[in-house]
Design a protein that fits this description.
Elements lengths: L14 H12 L3 E3 L7 E7 L6 H11 L6 E4 L8 H6 L2 E4 L7 H11 L3 E5 L14 H9 L3 E7 L4 E8 L5 H12 L16 H6 L1
Parallel strand pairs: 1-7, 2-5, 2-6, 3-4
Antiparallel strand pairs: 6-7
């Protein structure tokens, strides 16, 4: 008989839920949504327009007791800070490697029984005009759902929306993602990046 726990998303320590709930209640935020019954997934972190997104994202994840991973340049994990970075969910990636970023992360998914990778597709630098498509190609190649997570600063609401299994029809899948994020307001609306991938722009 299969272990039912293998179908659950990776869970953080039990105390994280109460701590995160207390923090969000203190600042007037609420959470909503339900995680999919999948042990693996790519979590879209959007909209991303401020450093404040990180503590709120971690707090919302704590309410769901979701243990998340994130990608970092391999040099961040060298030296005495390496163990702490890994403990915080960091995954080192080496862009100099023969295999590209997508291949490295897909291999990590394949090697893990459970894993949720948080990705901010709008990037962390100003001047971006569209989303980076890595999250989509990782999810498709690893055969895991894309989970639409969000922080709505206008409503003071954070959580998760639909889980989308990438079909390979990028436009159709992105239309569903665009519809979900259409009315969600980030911290700084001036830095909002269009919910569109470079592959869609190239076709246009």
């Amino acid at each position: 008989m299969d272990n039912p726990l293998q179908a659950l998303p990776p869970q953080s320590a039990p105390w994280t839920r109460s701590a995160a709930s207390s923090y969000l209640k203190l600042v007037g935020w609420k959470t909503t949504g339900t995680l999919p019954d999948s042990p693996k997934g790519v979590l879209i972190a959007a909209p991303h327009s401020s450093n404040w997104d990180l503590p709120f994202m971690l707090a919302v994840a704590g309410v769901f007791r979701l243990k998340i991973n994130w990608l970092g340049k391999h040099t961040l994990f060298e030296g005495p800070m390496g163990p702490m970075m890994r403990a915080l969910g960091g995954i080192p990636v080496d862009r100099r490697a023969r295999h590209g970023l997508v291949e490295q992360v897909v291999q990590r998914f394949n090697d893990s029984e459970s894993m949720y990778l948080a990705v901010a597709p709008s990037g962390t630098r100003s001047g971006n005009t569209h989303w980076k498509s890595g999250f989509y190609h990782i999810a498709r190649a690893a055969n895991v759902p894309i989970v639409c997570a969000f922080l709505d600063y206008k409503k003071k609401l954070g959580g998760v929306g639909p889980a989308i299994v990438p079909s390979g029809d990028i436009k159709a899948d992105m239309d569903r993602i665009r519809e979900f994020y259409a009315d969600i307001v980030g911290f700084d609306g001036r830095k909002t990046v269009g919910v569109q991938l470079s592959e869609e722009l190239e076709k246009e």
